[in-house]
Design a protein that fits this description.
Blueprint lengths: L2 E2 L2 E2 H34 L4 H12 L2 H17 L13 H9 L1
Antiparallel strand pairs: 1-2
Length: 100
């Protein structure tokens, strides 16, 4: 094992090669994902909406509820949505208001 300036060049080379391999795998996976979106689009699905659905699916239910509440509130404030009724506040927001 050679040392240069207190650094193990063999160990450094191994780390660099591992990172390069992982970066290549990441690029391959990204290409696979692009192909799935292209196939979905070809079959009539909207990739932009699909990305939104994936983002929402990653959220837990309380985070999703809060996100929807805030989005509805902003859309109503900007006159971009018809106010049917006051948006339902997420359950954790009600608890924090009661505690105040």
């Amino acid at each position: 094992m050679s040392q240069v300036g207190g650094i193990s060049s063999d160990q450094l080379k191994q780390f660099i090669e591992r990172i390069e391999n992982l970066e290549q795998e990441k690029a391959n996976i990204a290409e696979d994902i692009r192909e799935v979106y292209a196939e979905a689009k070809y079959n009539g699905f909207d990739p932009k909406i699909m990305r939104s659905v994936l983002k929402i699916r990653k959220m837990d239910s309380s985070e999703r509820e809060e996100h929807e509440y805030i989005l509805d509130t902003y859309l109503i404030a900007l006159g971009m949505a018809v106010e049917k009724a006051a948006p339902k506040a997420p359950s954790n927001a009600n608890e924090s208001e009661e505690a105040a």
